[in-house]
């Protein structure tokens, strides 16, 4: 059976930086409140002419280059996003055309902040089954387009960006040892964008009611996140017959530094073992983990190191993926 490896990664964030200080003139907030409650210092905002596919493509090109592949080598493109360019065609098809990935099937995947890990699962299974040899998994978001810039509870949290990984059959790069996924739709109401779908199509009423923006019960999401990070990791470790002390590094979804610090404290982990980039980018939903993975891989750990990706988000959804670094 072929082994699924991450043969290349890439990342792209827009050039426009939005600082906490600037947000003081947008909503009733303070630099200090945002930093102390979230750990975020600044985030990136897509330029007016940049949609999600425009952030995806540079990340994808870099991932292909790092994998030593051409766009035409790719069998499938999965774009994980809750902010597609439009309802249809899929952003993945738009990316496929822009890259010239003529041999690739293409589709979007909606699992919010856990999207990238869901995408890795599909890619790894298709590779292990022998269906595909190279899959481009992209996590990309332009959340700035769906946050309510009048709502201080949400607009300070998010940022735009894209991360990409090529998952290949065999070869060099970190090996995917296992993945655990979960979902619980019964609590999905705590994080939604109510309008714009078939339930509440766009109308003057939905626009005036600000229903096309992110609506979030922050405290409920926080409680869910704290519980599920541990559970997602331990379920996967149990399945693989491993324990927490056999994991060398963690790359969690970047929602809030307090969630990450709480996790570190419970597991008695030094913070150096946990990748953190939310100070620079905020919460980029499905892009958070692949961007952090790309940055982490720029200073690769020792051969044999085990690295846990762990995500949670809207749906509600969650997932974990254990990687093992191989010699290059
Ligand atoms: N500036 C100043 N005050 C604010 C701001 C702000 N930007 N936002 C909220 N407040 C106020 C609230 O109005 C409230 O005031 P009140 O007591 O007068 O009503 C007060 O601060 C406390 O609000 P809380 O919601 O209790 O603040 P909390 O400490 O819980 O922090 C936060 C809020 C940061 C949203 C936290 O709940 C959180 O991180 N939740 C996780 C949610 C998350 O990360 N979601 C991201 C998307 S989901 C995902 O990625 C999985």
List keywords for this structure.
328 residues; alpha/beta; Peroxisomal Thiolase, Chain A, domain 1; 2 domains; five-stranded mixed beta sheet; four-stranded mixed beta sheet; 13 strands; binds acetyl coenzyme *A
Would you mind describing this structure in some detail?
- The chain is built from 11 helices and 13 strands.
- It is an alpha/beta fold and 328 residues long.
- The strands form 4 sheets. It has a 5-stranded mixed sheet with strand order 1-7-6-4-5, sandwiched between helices. The protein has a 4-stranded mixed sheet with strand order 8-13-12-11, sandwiched between helices. The chain has a two-stranded antiparallel ribbon with strand order 2-3.
- Strand 12 and strand 13 form a beta hairpin.
- Helix 3 (52-67) crosses helix 4 (91-99) and helix 8 crosses helix 9.
- The two termini are 21 Å apart.
- The model has no long low-confidence stretch (mean pLDDT 96).
- The structure holds acetyl coenzyme *A.
């Amino acid at each position: 059976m072929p082994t699924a490896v991450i043969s290349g990664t890439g990342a792209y964030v827009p050039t426009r930086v939005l600082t906490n200080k600037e947000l003081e003139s947008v909503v009733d907030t303070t630099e200090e409140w945002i930093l102390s409650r979230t750990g975020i210092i600044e985030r990136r905002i897509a330029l007016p002419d940049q949609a999600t596919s425009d952030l995806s493509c540079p990340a994808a090109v870099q991932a292909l280059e790092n994998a030593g592949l051409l766009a035409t080598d790719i069998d499938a493109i999965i774009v994980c996003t809750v902010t597609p360019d439009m309802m249809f065609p899929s952003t993945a098809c738009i990316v496929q055309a822009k890259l010239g990935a003529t041999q690739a099937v293409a589709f979007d995947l909606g699992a919010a902040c856990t999207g990238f890990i869901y995408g890795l699962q599909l890619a790894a299974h298709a590779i292990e089954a022998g269906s595909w040899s190279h899959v481009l998994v992209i996590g990309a978001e332009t959340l700035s387009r769906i946050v309510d810039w009048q709502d201080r509870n949400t607009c300070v949290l998010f940022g735009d960006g894209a991360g990409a990984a090529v998952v290949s059959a065999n070869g060099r790069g970190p090996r995917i040892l296992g993945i655990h996924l979960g979902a619980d739709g019964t609590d999905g109401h705590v994080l939604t964008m109510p309008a714009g779908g078939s339930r509440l199509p766009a109308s003057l009423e939905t626009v005036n009611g600000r229903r096309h923006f992110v609506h979030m019960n922050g405290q409920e999401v926080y409680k869910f996140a704290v519980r599920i990070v541990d559970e997602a990791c331990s379920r996967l470790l149990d399945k693989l017959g491993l324990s927490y002390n056999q994991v060398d590094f963690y790359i969690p979804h970047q929602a809030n530094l307090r969630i990450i610090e709480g996790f570190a404290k419970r597991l008695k982990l030094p913070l150096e073992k946990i990748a953190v980039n939310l100070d620079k980018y905020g919460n980029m939903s499905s892009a958070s983990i692949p961007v952090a993975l790309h940055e982490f891989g720029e200073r690769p750990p020792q051969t044999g190191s085990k690295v846990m990706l762990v995500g949670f988000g809207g749906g509600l959804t969650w997932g974990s993926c254990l990687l093992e670094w191989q010699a290059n």
